[in-house]
Design a protein that fits this description.
Chain lengths: 93, 587
C-alpha cells in the first residue's frame, strides 16, 4: 500500500448486487482513475479495475464493501465509486 | 401408428410467453474441444500471439453483435456485450493466461483453465444471480476457444436457418439469441437457465416463446421431432398426440387473438352466459409481474409466491425490505386483493441465506409451514411485514403445506402474537386481514372440516395435491404418465374440498396449473369453485372460456367427471361443451 491511502465503507443496495452490467460499470469508472483501487469484502480483496476480480467478489444485495484507493486522484476515485454504488449503478430495478 | 413415440411432457420455467408447434432442431451440449500440449520455450511467443489475435477477433465479433442488439433491442441489452468485451480486456486475467503459457502450455489449454477456474468459483456459490454471471464468463470462454480452433458456433448456425424451426439447446448464450433469425425461430427451449438469465430476458423482448430450465430437453429431443413449446405454462411437449396438437392449435389461435384483443376483455368479469361469476386472478413470483397482472385483466393476485425474496441473495431480507415490496404490490392491485403466501422453501427450492440439510425426499421433507414453525424468527419477520402492508391495500395471508390441524393452530398463534406486538407498538395494520391455507396435501382434504374452522379461505394447490395423491413425480419420466389432473381420485378430493368450504361458509379457490388448462378450469367451474388463479398470460384465455359457456353445462360435465373413471372421456365431454357455444374454438 502506498503512503497515502483512503478507504470508505459502502453497502450494495441494488437488488441484483454486483451483477454483470453493474460490475462492468464499476470497472469502467475505476479504470478512469490513475490511483490503485481495490475492493475488499471480509478478507477478500480484488482489483477494482479487473472485471473478473469484481465478479469474483460475489457481492449480492446487502454486502458491505470497503473501497480502498491510493494515488494522485484517490479522493475523486473513492467518491466516484461509492457514488455509483449508492446510485444503484444508474440502472432501473 | 407403428414407430410413433409416446407423448412426453417436460416442465421447466416459463421464460417468455406464447405458444408454438413445429419441428425441432437440436443443439446438444457441445463443449468446444480443448487441445492440450506442452510447448517449447521457443513457441511461447507464437502461442501468446495466437491468443492475442483470437481475443481481438472475439472482441470484433462481440462488437458486431453489440451494435446489432443496440439497434434492434436497445442500449440496455447491448451493455451485456460491453461487459463481455470487458472480460476480454481484463489485463489481470490475461496475465494469468500468459504466465500459464510461459509455464509451457498451449494457448487453448492455458486460456481455458484460467477461465474455467473463475467460472467454477462463481458457480459453486450456488446463488442464482451469481450462477448467471458464471454463464457470462463461459460464453466468452467458448467464443475465444472456437476462434482459436476455427470451429463454427451455434450462433452462426442459428443465423443461417433456412426453415421454420423450434430451437432446442442445452443452453443459448445471449449472443446466440441475438443472432437467431427471428422470422425462422418459432420458439426455443433449453436445459439450463433461469428467469433472470439474459437469454430469458432477451426472449421476452424478442417476443419468442421460450421455456428454460428443462434439465434434459436437449437429450430427449432429436432433429425433426414434433415439439410444442408452451411459454405461458413453462411446458414442452415432445411428439404430441393428435388430440394434444389439436388442443394447442386452438389455443395458439386464441392466444394470437388475445394478444391482439386483450383490451376487449380486460375490464369484463369472468361470468358465464347464464350469469354465474367467479373470481379470476393471477399467480406471481415477483413484484415485477404486477404490471402483467393488470394488463391481462386479472382480478388481483391469487397466489404471490414469496420465495424469490429469500433466494438469490446474501443474508435474510429485513422486515422493512419485505414491507416495501408487499406494500408496492398491494397498492398496485388495490382494491383487488393480493394473497401473500408465506414462504414455501424446501422441496425444489433452496435457501441461500443459510445451509439447509440435503434431503432424500425433499417433497416430503422440511418445507413450507414446517420450516416456518421451526424458524419462527424468520416467520415472524415475514408476518410483520405482510401485516404492515395490509394497512395500505387488500392483503390476505396464506400458509403453505398444511397437513395437520396443530400446524394451523400454531401458525395462527404466531400471527396473533405478531398482531399483539404491532398493536403495542402502535403500528397500523388491517386487524381483519383474511387468513387462509393452501390445500395441497391429501391429509388437508380429509380434515378440511376441522381446518375450515380456523381460516377464511382455502386455495387448492393442485400441482402438489396431484403428485401426493397419485404418488407420482411428474419430473420422473417413468411415472409421469400417472400424473393426471382428471384422475377420479384427484377430482373427488377437489370436490370434497369445495363442498366442505361451502358448508363451512368460507370461499375456495385453486391456484395450481389446473387453472390454466381450459378443460380442467371448465370442470372446476362446474364443481362450484369460487376463484381460479393462473399465470397472468393465460388469464385472458380462461376468461374467454368462462364467458363463452353455460354454468349449467359445466355443472353437468363436472357431475359426469366425478362418476366416470376415464379421464379421456371427461376431456372429450368438456371440449364438446366449451366448443358448443363458441364453435370457432374447435375449428
Amino acid at each position: 500500500m502506498g503512503l497515502y491511502m483512503i478507504e470508505r465503507d459502502v453497502k450494495i443496495i441494488n437488488k441484483l448486487g454486483l451483477h454483470l452490467r453493474a460490475a462492468a460499470a464499476l470497472v469502467q469508472t475505476a479504470s478512469g482513475f490513475a490511483s490503485d483501487i481495490h475492493l475488499r469484502k471480509d478478507d477478500m480483496e480484488v482489483d477494482a479495475k479487473s472485471i473478473m476480480g469484481v465478479l469474483g467478489l460475489e457481492a449480492g444485495q446487502g454486502t458491505h464493501l470497503k473501497v480502498i484507493a491510493s494515488g494522485s486522484d484517490e479522493e475523486d476515485a473513492v467518491r466516484a465509486i461509492v457514488g455509483l454504488i449508492e446510485a444503484k449503478f444508474n440502472e432501473e430495478e | 401408428m407403428p414407430g410413433d413415440r409416446d407423448e412426453v411432457v417436460l416442465s421447466g420455467i416459463a421464460a417468455s410467453p406464447g405458444l408454438a408447434m413445429g419441428k425441432a432442431i437440436v443443439f446438444a451440449k457441445r463443449d468446444v474441444r480443448v487441445p492440450f500440449r506442452r510447448i517449447q520455450a521457443g513457441e511461447v511467443e507464437v502461442e501468446i500471439d495466437r491468443l492475442k489475435r483470437a481475443i481481438a477477433e472475439s472482441k470484433r465479433q462481440l462488437g458486431e453483435i453489440r451494435d446489432k442488439v443496440a439497434s434492434e433491442m436497445g442500449e440496455s441489452y447491448a451493455r451485456i456485450f460491453d461487459a463481455h468485451m470487458m472480460i476480454l480486456e481484463d489485463s489481470r486475467t490475461f496475465q494469468e493466461v500468459e504466465s500459464k503459457i510461459r509455464d509451457g502450455y498451449n494457448a487453448e489449454f492455458a486460456f481455458n483453465s484460467v477461465f474455467l477456474r473463475h467460472e467454477k468459483d462463481l458457480w459453486e456459490k450456488g446463488d442464482v444471480y451469481i450462477r448467471d454471471r458464471a454463464g457470462d464468463i463461459r460464453d466468452v470462454r467458448k467464443r475465444v476457444l472456437s476462434v482459436l480452433s476455427g470451429t463454427r458456433r451455434v450462433s452462426q448456425e442459428l443465423s443461417d436457418l433456412q426453415t421454420d424451426v423450434i430451437v432446442i439447446a442445452h443452453d443459448l448464450s445471449p449472443a446466440d439469441t441475438a443472432q437467431m433469425r427471428k422470422e425462422k425461430v418459432l420458439a426455443f427451449a433449453t436445459d439450463i437457465g433461469g428467469r433472470t438469465s439474459h437469454t430469458a430476458i432477451m426472449a421476452r423482448s424478442l417476443e419468442i416463446p421460450a421455456v428454460v430450465g428443462l434439465q434434459n430437453v436437449s437429450s430427449r429431443v432429436s432433429d425433426g421431432d414434433s415439439v410444442i413449446v408452451d411459454g405461458n405454462r413453462g411446458k414442452v411437449i415432445i411428439s404430441p398426440a393428435p388430440e394434444t396438437q389439436e388442443r394447442y392449435r386452438l389455443e395458439s389461435r386464441r392466444y394470437a387473438s388475445f394478444t391482439r384483443g386483450l383490451l376487449k376483455f380486460r375490464d369484463l368479469p369472468a361470468v358465464t352466459i347464464d350469469g354465474h361469476t367467479i373470481m379470476l386472478s393471477a399467480n406471481i413470483e415477483s413484484h415485477e409481474e404486477v404490471g402483467s397482472v393488470i394488463e391481462h385483466g386479472a382480478q388481483g393476485i391469487g397466489l404471490y409466491r414469496t420465495e424469490f425474496i429469500y433466494i438469490g441473495r446474501e443474508g435474510l431480507p429485513t422486515e422493512d425490505e419485505q414491507y416495501e415490496i408487499y406494500k408496492s404490490v398491494a397498492e398496485a392491485v388495490k382494491p383487488e386483493p393480493v394473497i401473500i403466501r408465506t414462504m414455501d422453501l424446501g422441496g425444489d427450492k433452496f435457501l441461500s441465506a443459510f445451509e439447509s440439510p440435503k434431503e432424500m425426499n425433499p417433497y416430503l421433507g422440511w418445507r413450507g409451514i414446517r420450516f416456518c414453525l421451526a424458524r419462527k424468527d424468520i416467520f415472524q419477520t415475514q408476518l410483520r411485514a405482510i401485516l404492515r402492508a395490509s394497512a395500505v391495500g387488500n392483503v390476505k395471508i396464506m400458509y403453505p403445506m398444511i397437513s395437520g390441524l396443530d400446524e394451523l393452530i400454531e401458525a395462527n398463534k404466531v400471527l396473533d402474537e405478531v398482531k399483539d406486538q404491532l398493536k403495542a407498538e402502535g403500528v397500523e395494520f388491517d386487524a381483519d386481514c383474511e387468513v387462509g391455507i393452501m390445500v395441497e396435501t391429501p391429509s388437508a382434504v380429509v380434515i378440511a372440516d376441522e381446518l375450515a374452522r380456523h381460516v377464511r379461505f382455502f386455495s387448492i394447490g393442485s400441482n402438489d395435491l396431484i403428485q401426493y395423491t397419485l404418488a407420482a413425480d411428474r419430473g420422473n419420466e417413468k411415472v409421469a404418465y400417472l400424473y393426471e389432473p382428471l384422475h377420479p381420485s384427484v377430482l373427488r378430493l377437489i370436490k370434497q374440498t369445495i363442498d366442505v368450504a361451502k358448508r363451512s361458509g368460507i370461499w375456495v379457490g385453486l391456484c395450481g396449473e389446473m387453472s390454466s388448462d381450459l378443460v380442467c378450469a371448465f370442470i372446476l367451474l362446474g364443481m362450484g369453485i369460487d376463484e381460479l388463479s393462473a399465470s397472468p398470460y393465460v388469464v385472458p384465455a380462461v376468461k374467454e372460456m368462462v364467458r363463452s359457456v353455460y354454468f349449467s353445462d359445466a355443472k353437468r360435465v363436472a357431475e359426469f367427471a366425478l362418476k366416470t373413471t376415464d379421464p379421456a372421456k371427461v376431456r372429450q365431454a368438456a371440449m364438446e361443451n366449451i366448443g358448443k357455444e363458441f364453435p370457432e374454438l374447435l375449428l
